[in-house]
């Protein structure tokens, strides 16, 4: 789905979501009409009663959609593949901006050590209520990478995020390329 496409859906069963950008929990009742505004990275952003709501990919069936299945071939050396870690990170999208966290410039560093992955990341704004949700998405996706036993995500705000940290592709996608 492109970032410009909007699709009207009927919610098939009651589903829990998070209000964007504050992150507060919300329940979307069954049989509600919603507008799907983003379906990138296996999670969904809908508009319900005038509010943006992020629906987790594990609840795709509530929207009549199929969830994203992320799978990797285990490396023959028994070690965590840094390429697979980055591939997993590229599947986590901001619920408001149709760009993954890597291309947004929110991932500052990745360290791999003996079955453990540590990620330093930031948010587009320090008070973003979706921060815990995005951290949870990163943790969940990285646990799908073969041989990852532990994931530690550290939110840091120095240096503060700016649009200059976005990839050129992301700047073009969002109209922020100058």
Runs in which pLDDT lies below 50 for 5 or more consecutive residues are: none
Distance between the termini: 26 Å
Helix content: 10-25%
Order of SSEs, N→C? Answer: EEEEEEHHEEHEH
Tell me the Rg in angstroms: 17 Å
How many helical stretches?
4
Strand element count = 9
Main sheet: which strands, in order across? 1-4-5-6-2-3
Shape, per Cα inertia axes: globular
Strand portion, in percent?
25-35%
Name the structural class.
Answer: alpha+beta
The average pLDDT value, as a whole number, equals 91
Q: Give the biggest sheet.
A: 6 strands, antiparallel
Write the layout of secondary structure elements.
Layout: E1 7-10, E2 15-19, E3 25-28, E4 33-38, E5 44-48, E6 51-55, H1 82-89, H2 101-104, E7 107-113, E8 116-121, H3 131-142, E9 150-155, H4 168-174
Parallel strand pairs: 8-9
Antiparallel strand pairs: 1-4, 2-3, 2-6, 4-5, 5-6, 7-8
Structure overview:
By secondary structure, this protein is of the alpha+beta class. Helix content is 17%, strand content 27%. It has 4 helices and 9 strands. Strands 1-4-5-6-2-3 form a 6-stranded antiparallel beta sheet, with no helix packed on it. A 3-stranded mixed beta sheet has the order 7-8-9. A hairpin with a 5-residue loop joins strand 2 (15-19) and strand 3 (25-28). The two termini are 26 Å apart. The mean pLDDT is 91.
């Amino acid at each position: 789905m492109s970032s410009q496409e909007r699709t009207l859906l009927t919610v098939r069963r009651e589903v829990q979501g998070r209000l964007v950008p504050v992150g507060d929990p919300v329940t979307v009742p069954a049989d509600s009409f919603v507008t799907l505004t983003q379906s990138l990275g296996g999670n969904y952003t809908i508009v319900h009663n005038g509010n943006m709501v992020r629906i987790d990919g594990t609840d795709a069936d509530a929207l009549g959609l199929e969830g994203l299945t992320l799978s990797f071939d285990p490396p023959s050396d028994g070690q965590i593949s840094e390429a697979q870690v980055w591939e997993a990170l590229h599947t986590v999208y901001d619920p408001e901006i149709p760009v993954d966290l890597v291309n947004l410039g929110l991932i500052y560093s990745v360290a791999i050590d003996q079955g453990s992955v540590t990620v330093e990341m930031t948010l587009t704004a320090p008070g973003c209520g979706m921060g815990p949700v995005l951290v949870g998405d990163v943790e969940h996706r990285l646990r799908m990478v073969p041989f990852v036993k532990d994931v530690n995500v550290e939110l840091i705000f120095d240096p503060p995020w700016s649009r200059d940290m976005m990839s050129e592709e992301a700047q073009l996608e969002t109209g922020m390329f100058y």
